[in-house]
UniProtKB/TrEMBL annotation:
It catalyses: (S)-3-amino-2-methylpropanoate + 2-oxoglutarate = 2-methyl-3-oxopropanoate + L-glutamate; 4-aminobutanoate + 2-oxoglutarate = succinate semialdehyde + L-glutamate. GO terms for biological process: gamma-aminobutyric acid metabolic process. It is an enzyme of class 2 (transferase). Its cofactor is pyridoxal 5'-phosphate. PANTHER family: AMINOTRANSFERASE CLASS III, LEUCINE_METHIONINE RACEMASE. It holds the Pfam family Aminotran_3. This is (S)-3-amino-2-methylpropionate transaminase. Belongs to the class-III pyridoxal-phosphate-dependent aminotransferase family. Its EC number is 2.6.1.19, 2.6.1.22. It comes from Pseudonocardia asaccharolytica DSM 44247 = NBRC 16224.
Amino acid sequence: MHHQPQRTPEADMTVAPDTTHALGGPALPQRRRIHTEIPGPRSRELQERQRAALPAGVGSALPVFVEAAGGGVVVDADGNSFIDFGSGIAVTTVGNAATGVVERAAAQLQRFTHTCFLVNPYESYVAVCEELNRRAPVAGPARTVLFNTGAEAIENAVKIARAATGRPAVVAFDHAYHGRTLLTMTLTAKNRPYKHGFGPFAGEVYRAPMAYAYRWPTGPEQCAREAADALVELVDRQIGAENVAAVLIEPIQGEGGFIVPAPGFLSAVAQICRDRGIVLIADEVQSGLARTGRWFAIDHEGVQPDLVTTAKGLGGGLPIAGVTGRAELMDAAPAGGLGGTFSGNPVSCAAALGVFEEIERGDLLARARAIEATMLPALDRMRQRHDVIGDVRGRGAMIAIELVKGGDHTPDAELTGRIARSCHAAGLLVLTAGTYGNVLRFLPPLSLPQDLLEEGLGILADAFDAQA
Ligand SMILES: Cc1ncc(COP(=O)(O)O)c(CNCCCC(=O)O)c1O
């Protein structure tokens, strides 16, 4: 076979103009700088290549191609620097390319990249499980098993609950999001874009009303009690409690619109489960691991679930997920019943240990609470000025506003998109969410400097003032 000339990157691609940021991480200049239209010329070139190489169904909220990221900024291929209010959808919680994550992952890469834990185990997997067991809000001794994605964690939490109870049914909630695999698509509530055309779906999945106070028909005061009554009705009358393996709930619903369940609802759900021997699974994939100012969002309600799922922020950007639960439940899965080729990959485990280190070293739980203390009042002031802001809600650095037609609760998805695009053009990376597409959600990295947080809020305020 003849020798292929060594291809060098330079031969294939012109180096992006004006890309002065070679390295990401906290050393990246923490500033907002926009000096091209958004997306810029280099991103538009890359978009053309993407159109030729990827299926049309893969889209991006802000199609600027990234060259570097760190602290609280994302820098694109045209050298534009954006304030990051997205964290890659609640993943780079401790900061993009965070020092502790990069150093540990880089060192691991030099030692070995993979063994498959089901073949040869390694200490870092055990250490991540110990970290999660130590912090998880479950009662008594805990066990953890690792996977790669949030959906995989949910799939396996349901397997464990079914093995432990011998029951088939799973109850999820309106506005829920749990992933894109067959079972997690079924558990997810919103049809487009997640489910449409991908059926038939999994069996034995049922849905109960979420205690969504802002949209509860009889008003927020009745919300928790009436939603709990509806859950009892579904479980006891329609399914039969003896057939229900698990109730699955996000302590703060993420893709559904950052819905914080009405006060008392999570406690009521936990009691309903305890009274019937039903496993309560808390899906903390988006809300967990310091994001809301506690290790887990459910901690704010003092509720102890039986199983907790984690992913996203756990690996600081590397794919890793976990199911942590009461030891007697976790041990119900038969030998060899839990696993996967890459599950608990050693590089991701090293990164995860870096995440725990960063959270402790930076006191990031307190930082999340400080971000809440800045954002909620600022957003409330915006709501006083603009009646299109129907609701302000969230905890820690998981905050959202719901946009409606002025004066009533009619969702306004068009305005939501317009505000988001205005923020993007001004150099603020924000994401939308919600069953009705009318939620602007804010997920800043906890490493975001305070001045950029306030600058970002100023951009948002200007966007609302401009649309008024
Ligand atoms: C609560 C909750 N559970 C489970 C998941 C699924 O986690 P995976 O790691 O994306 O599988 C999520 C992922 N949310 C972001 C989805 C992004 C997209 O695919 O459009 C979540 O938020």
